[in-house]
Write a structure and sequence with these properties.
Strand content: under 5%
Distance between the termini: 25 Å
Structural class: mainly alpha
Largest sheet: none
Shape: globular
Helix content: 55-70%
Order of helices and strands: HHHHHHHHHH
Number of strands: 0
Radius of gyration: 22 Å
């Protein structure tokens, strides 16, 4: 809701895609959901998301997203062609987009105000994979996303009991489709990458047929170490979230002048 209030078109489009997938599977397979009226809430959210997406209405006083500049589609596709012509299989390596752009960008950019701008990433995370990881990395990344989506879809349409676990799988499927779409139409950042790989791990856990359960006694060294590790991870995650939010607010204030 916050992203929609900020008039962030990409976030709205990703949210709409996730809701469409959720409603499609739920209406197709879940007659019990329709009878209980559980479709009304995501349907209302979809209508609201479409309204903000099409009308581009922003609430007065709501924060505005900071200005972002990416290379044009034609410019980045030209970089892809140049990189793959020299490094077809494995690209130029991780975090090398800034060097690829400096070497292969269109010369017409030199006549614009962006002649000295250094871009560390392009407009699409998937395209960036082909540039920095080559054909092998790009195809593996796309194949990983598609295999997870297919497994989740198969898991939701073949299950016989339409219970809360089935509903959770639909939510996981729609969320993962939304995040996969964000990798196509937007550059990836720490937050998007974290959500993407967490959802991917969750999809593997849900669709896996062979599961191993480890039971720990309440008064063992392993249980204590696991609890402390979880506490440290929670504290680190909270700190990272706080710093990221602080930096984002600073960018918004800077963009406002």
């Amino acid at each position: 809701a916050t992203l929609l209030l900020m008039s962030f078109f990409t976030a709205g489009l990703v949210l709409v895609a996730g809701l469409v997938v959720f409603l499609t599977v739920a209406i197709w397979q879940g007659r019990e959901m329709q009878e209980k009226g559980l479709i009304s809430i995501p349907m209302a959210l979809l209508i609201i998301a479409l309204f903000f997406l099409v009308a581009k209405v922003s609430v007065p006083g709501a924060p505005q997203s900071p200005l972002e500049v990416f290379p044009s589609t034609s410019s980045e596709m030209g970089i892809v062609r140049e990189v793959l012509s020299h490094n077809l299989w494995f690209g130029t390596g991780p975090s090398t987009f800034i060097f690829d752009y400096a070497k292969y960008h269109e010369t017409s950019v030199n006549n614009t105000i962006f002649f000295g701008t250094k871009f560390s990433s392009g407009f699409s995370a998937v395209v960036n994979w082909f540039i920095t990881q080559g054909i092998v990395g790009g195809i593996l990344f796309i194949g990983l996303m598609l295999s997870a989506i297919i497994n989740l879809l198969f898991e939701t349409i073949t299950v016989k009991q339409k219970n809360s676990a089935w509903l959770m799988k639909i939510g996981l499927l729609s969320s993962f489709v939304a995040m996969a779409l964000s990798q196509v139409i937007y550059d990836s950042n720490t937050t998007f990458s974290f959500l993407l790989w967490v959802l991917l791990a969750a999809s593997v856990a849900v669709t896996s047929k062979h599961k191993k359960i480890i039971a720990l006694s309440p008064r063992t060294l392993g249980t204590t170490a696991l609890s402390l590790s979880g506490l440290l991870v929670a504290l680190a995650s909270t700190g990272i979230l706080f710093v990221a939010a602080q930096n984002y607010v600073a960018e918004v204030q800077y963009a406002r002048g």
